[in-house]
Each structure stands twice: as C-alpha cells, then as structure tokens.
Amino acid sequence: MILHELIDFETLRVIWWLLLGVLLIGFALTDGFDMGVGALLPFVAKTDLERRVAINTIGPVWEGNQVWFILGGGAIFAAWPPLYAVSFSGFYLAMFLILAALILRPVGFKYRSKRDSARWRQGWDWALFVGGAVPALVFGVAVGNVLQGVPFRLTEDLMPLYEGSFFGLLNPFALLTGLTSLAMLVMHGGAWLSLKADGAVAARARIYGSYGAAGSIAGFVLAGLWLAIGLDGYALAGPNVTDGPSNPLLSEVMHGGSWLAAYADRPWIAIAPVLGLAGAALTYLGLKAGREVSTLLASKLAIFGMISTVGLTMFPFILPSTIDPRSSLTVWDSSSSHLTLFVMLVATVIFMPLILAYTAWVYKVLWGKVTEDSVKNNEETVY
Amino acid sequence: MDLDVVELSRLQFAMTAMYHFLFVPLTLGLSILVAIMETVYVMTSRPIWRQMTKFWGTLFGINFVLGVATGITMEFQFGMNWSYYSHYVGDIFGAPLAVEGLMAFFLEATFVGLFFFGWDKLSRRGHLTVTWLVALGSNFSALWILIANGWMQNPVGSVFNPMSMRMEMTSFYDVVFNEVAQAKFVHTVSAGYVTAAVFVLGVSAWYLLKNRHVELARRSIAVAASFGLASALSVVVLGDESGYSVTHSQKMKLAAIEAMWETEPAPAAFTAFGFPDQEARETHYAIHIPYAMGLIGTRSLTHEIPGIKELVEDAETRIRSGLIAYEALMQIRSEREAAPEAVKARFEDHGADLGFALLLKRYVDDPLQATDEEISLAANDTVPTVWPLFWAFRIMVALGFGFIAVMAYFFYVASFRNMTFPRPALMLAVIMIPAPWIAAELGWFVAEFGRQPWTVDGVLPTALSVSHLSITQVALTLAGFVALYSTLFLIEMGLMIKYIRKGPYLDMPISGNRPDAPTSEPTPGRTSGLQPAE
C-alpha cells in the first residue's frame, strides 16, 4: 500500500498530536460537565427531587459523553502505543481509582432512582459524587506529574520500567494542578446546570460554578508562576529527526531550562492561556449575571484554552522521564507506524464529522430545561 | 520474569473480561429483539407492542449500563497490566479498538439515551430509527472487538520492525478481513442473539406459569422462539466455521481441544468422550467417532490434522530458528542502520520465528544461553492444559444443540399448536435462562485459554507481555475489582428480578385505538394478572 505516503510521517505525527488534544478536550467538554455535576451534587441539590433534577440534566447524554473517554484510551493505544504502555502501567493505582470511580458513575445514574429506599439513593449519591470529583482531581494530578516528568525508563527492548510510587504522584505541584482541574470542571458543571436545571438547583449551581471559575483562574495562574520559577522543563538535545522510527531511545533529551522557553520560540502559543483565562473570567461574570447559553460556551472556551496551554507548552514532549531523560516520549519518537497513523486518520475523517453531527442532533432533541415537574410527570422513564 | 505477577495479571484479565461478557451478549441480542418489537409496533400501531418494547427495553437498560461500565476497564487494562504487550503490538491491536469507538460505541451510546428519554420527543419512526441505530452500534462494536481478538489468534498483516522493536501493520485490509476474525464475529453475535432469545423466552414462560401479562408473554415467546431458532442454528453452523478456520491458523489449539496426541491418518476420528491425561499424553476411556474430526476440521477425507506430539516437535524447530533471528536482532539493535546486510537478511529469513525464541525468556534472561533441555521445556510449554479445553468445548457444543432443540420446540408450538405450552416445557424454559451465559463464557475460555502460552499466537508469549508491577499492586487491584464487581453483580441481579416481578407498566390504554395518546398519567403496572383485552 503506497497510498499512505500521500501524507508524510512528520505531518501525520503532528496531526495525531492535534487529534490527541481534540479527544482530550472533547472528553473534558462533554464528560467534564458530567463530572462537574457529580462533584456538585451534594451542594446544589438538597432534596431527593432536586437531586433527580440535577441527575436528569445529564441522564440522557452521559453514555455518549463517556465514549470520549473510551475513545481517548483507544486512540492513545492506536496512535501513541508507548504513551499508552508507559503511562497506564506507571500510574497503575491512580488509574485503578479512576476506573473504579468511572464505573460507579454510570451505574449510579441508571440505578439510583430504581428503588425508593432513602439509604439506597444516598449510597448512589455518594457514588456519583466520588465518580465526579475523584477523576476530575486525578486527571489534573496526572497533568501535573507529566509536566514535572515521570520516573520511568525504557530497557533496550523498550520494556517500560516505572520507579515511582503512588504517593509520589501526590506532590505539591501535582496537587495544585489537580485542584485546578477540579475547579475547572466544577465551573463547567455549574454552567451546565444553570442552563439545564431551574429553580433552586440552578441558583446554587451559579454560586458554586462561580467559585469554580475563580478557583480555576487562581490555580492556572499559580501553576504558570510555578513553571516560571520553580520547575525545570525538558528540551531535545541533538539532531531533531522528525520522521524516524518510533524508538524513544534514538533521541537525546536534556532536563533543565524552563518549559516557558516555548513562549519565546513560538510566541503565538500565548493565545492558549489568554483564551483559557478569558473564558474562565467570562464564565464567572456570566454565572453572576445569570446568562445561560453564552456562559456554557465561555466555560467551553476556558477548558479549550487551559488544556491547549499544557499541550502547546510541552510540544514536542508528551511524557518526559525524570530518571532517564533519553527515554522521554516525544511526538517524533513515540507514535504508531506511518501506515497505522494514516489508516486511523482516514477512519477519523470519516466518522468524526458523523459523530459530531448526530451528537449535536441528540442535544437539540433534548433541548430545554429539566424541572421538578418534568421529573414527577415522567416517573417511569426518568432517572 | 516473575511468574506470580503473570498469573495474577492473567487472573485479573480473565475475571474482568468474563464479567464484562456477562452483559455483552444480552446487549447484542436484546437490542435487536427490542428493535424488532418496536418495528411491529410502528407497522401495526398496536399498543401492546409498544408496551413490549418498553418493558424489554427497561431490562435492556439495566443490563446495558453494566456492559458500558465494565467495558471501561477493558479499554484501559492492556496499558495497565500488559504494557509490554501494548508496546509490542499496539500499532496493530490499537487500531480496531479505536475504530470501534469511532464507528460503533459512539453510535450506540449516543442514541441509547434517546431510546429511553425520547419517546415523547420524537415521532414514532424517529424513535424506531434511534432503536435500530443502538442495535446496529452494539453489533458493530462486536465486529471491531473481534477483529482485534482475531488478530491475537491469527496475527496477519503485520511484521516485526527491528528499529522500533515492535510489530507494525503492513496491511489494514488483511487485519480486518482476517478469516478468524470474521468467523469469530458471526459466531459471537449469534451467541448473543441466542442469549437474548433464551432470556426473553424464559422470563415470558415464567409469566405464563404465573398467569400474568399473558398477552405480552405469548407475543414475546413468538418473537423469541423464531429469532432464537434461527440464531441457535447459526451459532452452531458458524461455530463449525470458526473451527474450520482454526484448523489452519491454530493447529495446537485444535489438537488440544480434541486431545489429539498423535497425528492420525486422514480422515481423523473425533473423540466424543474421554479423560485426557497430559502427563502420559493419551486419552483414557476415549469414545471415537470415525472420520468426523477429519470432516469437521478439513472438510475433506484426505487432509491430515497434526497431533500434539508432532506440533511440539515443530515448535522445537521453530525455537531454534527463532534463536537465529534473535541473535541477528541483537546485532541490529546495537548497530542500528550500520548492521551488515547479511545479518539483516538473516533476520528477514527467520524473523517469523522470533516469538518462539522469546518463549525461552521464562527460563533464561538471554535466550541465546538456553540449554537443549530448556529448549525442549519451552517447546513443551506450547501445549495448553488439555483437559479443561476438551471439556469446556464439549459442554459448549452440547448446550448449542440443546438451544436448537428447545427453540425448535417452542417455535413449533407457537406456530402450529396455538401456543398451548405444557407446564414442564415452560419450567424448562425458565430453568434454562443461565445456560447461554455458561456456553458463552466457555466459548471465550476455549478461545483464550487455548491460545496459551501466547497472547499473540506465535508472536508474543504471555509471560513476557505483562507490566513491570509488584505482586502487591496487582493483588490490590484484583481484590478491588472482585469487591466492586461482586457488589455490582448483586445489585444488578436484584434490580433485574425486581423489574421482572413488577412486569410491564402501562403508559396508555392498551385496548384503545389511540397509539399516540398523551402520556401524562402513567399507570404503574404493579397489579398482577394484568391482561389487556385486545
């Protein structure tokens, strides 16, 4: 098959780096408000009926949203196998926590209102809270660790050996990024609930959502300052081969300098943090003013900007190694083969527009607020 | 290589995969049965069919959510527990998993919400379309997962790249149209259809025994029996197709399933019964059916099927050939592009046997230092433990024929005997509910256990595929999964039983001619003996 050489290897790698970003952002934009609603559940909804209103705003869409997570995993496996192998085995217990939380969540949505018992429902409310808050926190902790580098090395056979511990992940910088991520998704959940719920639930969601917006701005700025003064970055040392075989050991990497050097090399990337901060500020103002649709859009902009900031700052690094910088994974040495990247791109070009189209259609069909009356009147079908 | 981590990781994978597969077959089949019922509703406008759609749809939902939840684990545990596997074959194996997400899972999961919440928001045809899209999505899902699994059984369309130290794809077409994958797909979805048919039949039979929801139960039996008969026939016929494809791709698995120790002159006999003895390499008290094995396995009277002893000798030859490839690879690895052409050519010639040399890693760190004794031990390792395969396969096949018989009987009574089912037949249908799950799990057991000692047949040994984790880590997550999954299983069973006892609910008058009547006052169908007059 010669067809795949239509697009050169270097370009395909950059495209797949972008698509990795698209998937992570897609996940944060859709499943993100599910997690935010879960984390907010005990705070914005006090009575059983209020909780059902909050849950039913995401009831019909969580399944589709969750697929962004699954597809993210599948795409990392298919396009960046070394990243998939190193990160998931390295963050082993943290991954288990995320999986357990994400398993409890869908089950909570579906089963919570299937029995009348108050204890049963309280139990599931906890599951939904954990299923929302824990992954939101842990994803941020993971990002913080990726920025610092992770203690792994690759053997000559490219077998990943991880030498850190679970508690090593919970260092101060990572906790800061974890809390920032939690605040960001709380903001997003608040913006969603203010649009889709009404009455007391929406009113409380606006208050807590604005805390989330303020918190994410503070955390994002603090993390930026930390990068500027307290944290070393990574850089490629030696010739930069962009279309060579995917073998991280073939390139030389240097630990030192600052991640923020990227902003001197590529000043245009400053647009990402600017959008992130502007989006969060607009969300804060929108929640205070009670605007609905535009606030959700602003919250999406904030998430887009903040996640893009991490990716653009690190480019071309994907997962640096602290103990053996040479093992670090970059865009140029940890992708799938030329053919696989091409095949996967074709599949994405065909199916992604379809997915976006029918997802948009489903949200359109479900347009409108979930109210206490709508929950009471559809007792047999709603959650 | 630490065998305890390997064993624990295998146990965890087997546990999570088999648990996931408790929910998948019912999703595959019930999505289609529900879509069929709704189609009848849209065509005839009879409210009873809408009620059936909603009732079976509720049970579908309780089951579906656990399929989704446990599927999350499946997508991520390759990286968590099998990181060398993920690196080594991710270039090929990851692609079908990602396409599954893009093409199938998104479709199914996005529309399933509308299936439950969209009754009042969509036209009847619109809702029917949504239901069929859910069914289509779940079946496409199975296709891509089985393409991935089929590649592990028969790794076509790929080659080892010494520069990146991993397998890389050479032809996506070959991976997708892998004969093993295609045979597995049709066999597996048919098994899902049988599972759902048996489930619907059993629950409906229980209603008839209790004289409740008779109209719903009778119609459901009619649908389930005809759908189930066709599916049970195809699961057996297509299972045979699957066996035929194994004959040329996985000779050792076939020999182990059949406990065929010696190569027999064609056409070989089929061992219907016996007690395989791994140590002595013979089967005690065997009952043979002449010619049958040769016919099933090769569809001819002249092709030989190799026995286990001959295959072990082949494996030893391939290990020695693999060692030549391994030695060449070590030189290419250290000298990269500068390696002499002769060495590269030697790797080309013997590269296909590289995986066999890796079997030695279980005994020595450097396969090149292996003794003759270790080589013969490794060759022996290519034989999976025979007796569990032998029995699991036979029980699965017997159950398969049982499904055909029961479905044929119910189809006959439903079509020609005016639905007067004798009580013992109804009781049998209730008792039979767990049987398709047993058959399906045994099927997976045969497929995966029969592939040992490989994760990817002939390419990568299981013992080498695992992550570099401690026993404590794996034991912790294994305990965590067992606790979480057991709890969820009990909860799910409890809800299933509650909703089956509760029966269908009415959201409109069943007897009226107003199929689109307002749904504002739902009447809970708690009253037993609810028998709508048509």
Automatic annotation (TrEMBL), chain A:
Pfam families: Cyt_bd_oxida_II. It is a multi-pass membrane protein. GO terms for molecular function: electron transfer activity; metal ion binding; oxidoreductase activity, acting on diphenols and related substances as donors, oxygen as acceptor. GO terms for cellular component: cytochrome complex; plasma membrane. Its main location: membrane. One of its GO terms (biological process) is aerobic electron transport chain. InterPro entries: Cyt-d_oxidase_su2. The keyword Heme applies. The chain crosses the membrane at residues 15-41, 53-77, 83-104, 124-146, 166-187, 208-229, 268-287, 299-319, 339-363. Keywords: Cell membrane, Electron transport, Heme, Iron, Membrane, Metal-binding, Transmembrane, Transmembrane helix, Transport. It is found in: Cell membrane. Belongs to the cytochrome ubiquinol oxidase subunit 2 family. This is Cytochrome d ubiquinol oxidase subunit II. The gene is cydB.
UniProtKB/TrEMBL annotation, chain B:
It holds the Pfam family Cyt_bd_oxida_I. It is a multi-pass membrane protein. Coiled coil: none annotated. GO terms for biological process: aerobic electron transport chain. Its main location: membrane. GO terms for cellular component: cytochrome complex; plasma membrane. It is found in: Cell inner membrane. Signal peptide: none annotated. The chain crosses the membrane at residues 20-43, 55-74, 94-118, 130-152, 190-209, 221-239, 391-413, 425-447, 467-491. PANTHER family: CYTOCHROME BD-I UBIQUINOL OXIDASE SUBUNIT 1, CYTOCHROME D UBIQUINOL OXIDASE. Keywords: Cell inner membrane, Cell membrane, Electron transport, Heme, Iron, Membrane, Metal-binding, Transmembrane, Transmembrane helix, Transport. GO terms for molecular function: electron transfer activity; heme binding; metal ion binding; oxidoreductase activity, acting on diphenols and related substances as donors, oxygen as acceptor. This is Cytochrome ubiquinol oxidase subunit I. Residues 511-534 are annotated as: Disordered. Residues 520-534 have a biased composition (Polar residues). Belongs to the cytochrome ubiquinol oxidase subunit 1 family.
